[in-house]
């Protein structure tokens, strides 16, 4: 058993069933992802297979599939074999219902965690069986490997196969009855599949970032496609000994050929992408100009209800680069399109009063996941409406994600942007800027012996004096610290609000009644109290304010600050006298009391040069009293520490 996923033990604190996800392109006993089973019947070990299959079909890219199940339980007196049989039975049934490739040699994994044992459920027992055997015929596997570089194993020879397709589905039904509309929907998507396999359809296949020099995009026609949907038996070990296979072009043929061994980072940056474009070429046989075509969608029988579904499909599939392009289209892309059309069926039927449901697919890469997942949102609901919040909360539970931070909002989605230069990243999360980001990465250690380092969680942008050609020297340090804090909330997707200017910060305080109108456009200082007001207004985040009577007492708050970075992880503003700093972390030895503060200094007034910032000490560890006896925090000044709280939202 090879465990590649980082969320494998997400059931360690609860009982239930989780699905084990693998790929026919990898080792048959490699677990890439786990998904919690949410839809159950009488008990947490009896899944509602119909509901589970509908949700997982739309969530997973083709090329990944259910290869087993794990049960975590706290029941005494039942033999382990009973839970293994339950897990394997559930996995077999779900595979059949979703329509994954099923043959006698398919390996099914069953795993059990006993939460009553000394291991607390952290050491599951694994068993395997083949589909040709009975459910109670399985063998234990003692050799379990937790892979150190799972991204390398999945993506070094893997690629994404991607397709976008705007589509219109006219649904004719005899009534508003959901069954009638559902039948009409099934007929409509069956006609779509027929079109996708029509002899005259064309598929243009090229690399996402442009076809390499000397190579041409590949065009396939419907008549060339293999009509079998299932992946080849043992797809993870293609045999190219057959001459016809050698002559067939594979996904690797459209990428740059190189023998250079390069370090592998993440699939977002390094994975190759095959782009498939679909062309409905109804006039392919004509040599001359053709007239425009009008298509007729006749209703079957008496039609009283018309519902038009306009939808832009975006499907992703996973394959290794030795897969034939014909198979990539016929056995991955076309089934993926049908999966996505079937996954939106329930959305269409939920509210038949809507003439045009506003459905849109989004692609996400959740924490510790090795591949993207697809989520379809109804844009007729605002992102903060309860319907959307509950959908996201359910997804967080299924994916094993924390339920106190937004990870599946629109702003979290990855966007595929074709670029000509392979050195450019073809995925982006937020519009980039020239502002430095995460400048503390790679700085020297603090020098605290035996200390525990607690740092900011997530990314931020560094705002400081004289940025954007605006001279705020001598008065704008707290404004800049606030901009850095708001950038953290933006980059963690808690808000889409822009970084406010000094004037906009002042205007917000006036609108809240904290300042007079003459304050707007002034060069007056602000402090922790004002920052808390603006954060509440612009971001919706509350703050804790810690008062310290003098600079000498700031180190006494190190334990409290360490707890803040462990639990909240937000940047802290420290204001004292006429100076303000941004605090990114602490290094604290609880036994000796020795501590250091990771300071990001907004008083820097130079260019956007990270090396210059670190070398000049504008970002670095500071002790309350350095080796020369100099106090960093002023002894005769009081300090306010602003500790922004992470909103408890999804």
Automatic annotation (TrEMBL):
<keyword id="KW-0788">Thiol protease</keyword>
<feature type="domain" description="UFSP1/2/DUB catalytic">
    <location>
        <begin position="453"/>
        <end position="642"/>
    </location>
</feature>
<dbReference type="GO" id="GO:0071567">
    <property type="term" value="F:deUFMylase activity"/>
</dbReference>
<dbReference type="InterPro" id="IPR049387">
    <property type="entry name" value="UFSP2-like_2nd"/>
</dbReference>
<keyword id="KW-0645">Protease</keyword>
<dbReference type="InterPro" id="IPR038765">
    <property type="entry name" value="Papain-like_cys_pep_sf"/>
</dbReference>
<dbReference type="GO" id="GO:0006508">
    <property type="term" value="P:proteolysis"/>
</dbReference>
<dbReference type="Pfam" id="PF20908">
    <property type="entry name" value="UfSP2_N"/>
</dbReference>
<keyword id="KW-0833">Ubl conjugation pathway</keyword>
<protein>
    <recommendedName>
        <fullName>Ufm1-specific protease</fullName>
    </recommendedName>
</protein>
<keyword id="KW-0378">Hydrolase</keyword>
<dbReference type="Pfam" id="PF07910">
    <property type="entry name" value="Peptidase_C78"/>
</dbReference>
<comment type="similarity">
    <text>Belongs to the peptidase C78 family.</text>
</comment>
<dbReference type="InterPro" id="IPR012462">
    <property type="entry name" value="UFSP1/2_DUB_cat"/>
</dbReference>
<feature type="domain" description="UFSP2 second">
    <location>
        <begin position="269"/>
        <end position="417"/>
    </location>
</feature>
């Amino acid at each position: 058993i090879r465990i590649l996923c980082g969320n494998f033990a997400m059931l360690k604190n609860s009982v239930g069933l989780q699905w084990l996800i693998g790929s026919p392109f990898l080792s048959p006993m490699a677990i890439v992802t786990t998904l919690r089973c949410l839809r159950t019947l009488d008990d947490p070990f009896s899944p509602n297979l119909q509901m589970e299959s509908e949700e997982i079909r739309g969530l997973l890219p083709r090329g990944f599939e259910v290869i087993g199940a794990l049960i975590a339980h706290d029941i005494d007196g039942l033999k382990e074999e009973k839970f293994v049989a339950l897990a394997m039975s559930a996995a077999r049934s779900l595979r059949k219902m979703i329509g994954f490739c099923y043959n006698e040699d398919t390996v099914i994994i069953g795993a059990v965690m006993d939460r009553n044992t000394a291991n607390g459920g952290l050491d599951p027992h694994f068993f395997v069986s083949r589909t040709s055997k009975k459910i109670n015929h399985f063998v234990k596997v003692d050799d379990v490997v937790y892979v150190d570089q799972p991204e390398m194993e999945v993506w070094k020879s893997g690629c994404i196969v991607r397709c976008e397709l705007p589509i219109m589905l006219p649904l004719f039904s005899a009534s508003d009855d959901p069954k009638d509309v559902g039948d009409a929907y099934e007929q409509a998507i069956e006609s779509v599949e027929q079109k996708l396999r029509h002899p005259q359809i064309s598929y243009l296949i090229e690399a996402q970032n442009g076809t390499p020099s000397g190579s041409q995009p590949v065009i396939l026609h419907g008549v060339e496609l293999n009509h079998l949907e299932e992946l080849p038996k043992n797809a993870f070990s293609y045999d190219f000994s057959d001459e016809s296979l050698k002559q067939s072009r594979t996904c690797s043929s459209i990428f740059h050929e190189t023998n250079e061994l390069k370090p592998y980072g993440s699939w977002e940056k390094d994975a190759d992408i095959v782009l498939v474009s679909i062309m409905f070429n109804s006039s392919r046989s004509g040599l001359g100009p053709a007239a425009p075509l009008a298509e007729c969608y006749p209703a079957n029988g008496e039609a009283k209800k018309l519902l038009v579904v306009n939808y832009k499909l975006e499907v992703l599939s996973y394959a290794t680069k030795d897969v034939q392009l014909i198979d990539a289209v016929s056995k991955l892309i076309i089934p993926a399109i049908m999966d996505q059309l079937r996954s939106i069926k329930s959305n269409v039927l939920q509210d038949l009063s809507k003439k045009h449901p506003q459905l849109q697919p989004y692609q996400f890469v959740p924490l510790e996941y090795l591949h993207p997942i697809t989520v379809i949102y109804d844009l007729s609901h605002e992102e903060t409406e309860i319907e959307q919040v509950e959908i996201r909360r359910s997804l967080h539970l299924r994916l094993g994600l924390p339920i106190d931070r937004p990870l599946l909002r629109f702003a979290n989605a990855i966007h595929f942007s074709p670029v000509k230069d392979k050195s450019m990243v073809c995925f982006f999360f937020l519009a980039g800027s020239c502002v430095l980001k995460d400048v503390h990465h790679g700085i020297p250690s603090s020098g605290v012996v035996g200390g525990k380092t607690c740092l900011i969680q997530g990314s931020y942008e560094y705002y400081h004096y004289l940025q954007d050609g605006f001279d705020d020297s001598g008065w704008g340090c707290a404004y800049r610290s606030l901009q850095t804090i708001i950038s953290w909330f933006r980059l963690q997707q808690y808000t889409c609000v822009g970084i406010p200017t000094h004037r906009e910060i002042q205007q917000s305080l006036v609108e809240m009644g904290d300042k007079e109108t003459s304050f707007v456009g002034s060069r007056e200082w602000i402090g922790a109290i004002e920052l808390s007001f603006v954060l509440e207004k612009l971001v919706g985040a509350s703050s804790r304010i810690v008062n310290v009577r003098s600079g000498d007492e700031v180190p006494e708050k190190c334990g409290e600050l360490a707890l803040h970075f462990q639990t909240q992880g937000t940047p802290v503003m420290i204001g004292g006298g006429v100076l303000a700093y941004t605090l990114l972390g602490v290094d604290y030895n609880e036994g000796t009391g020795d501590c250091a503060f990771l300071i990001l200094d907004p008083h820097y007034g130079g260019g956007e040069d990270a090396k210059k910032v670190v070398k000049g000490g504008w970002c670095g560890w500071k002790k309350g009293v350095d080796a020369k006896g100099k106090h960093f925090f002023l002894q005769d000044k009081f300090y306010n520490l602003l500790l922004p709280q992470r909103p408890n939202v999804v």
